[in-house]
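Write out this protein's structure.
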Amino acid sequence: MPSRDSLRADERGVSPVIGVILMVAITVILAAVIGTFVLNLGGSVSSNAQAGVSAQANGSSYDVTVTSLGSNTDGVYCTAGSPSSPGDSASSPAGVGVTITGCQGNVVAVGNGSTSNAVVRTLG
């Protein structure tokens, strides 16, 4: 039967190994986080414009009503059909509460600043 001292000697070797592994893991994680900030890898992510719309069929086209706009969105327009003003082109996007009649293609949210335009609904 081993003595108490020999059991303690065997158990002492495990703790330093686990400690070294944990220290290396923490160092690698910290290096990755700091490297990301230094190289500005997270800054190149762009966001898309967001909008809520409802569409009601009207013959072969749709009447699209803008229900909400994201904080990074200027308005909404239709890409196909003979949409009526306002919101009949990207240069004059429709705002909340406006109904665009005669839409047949995609409904696109127009982004502002560095925000990209995004299709929010496909019609037909």
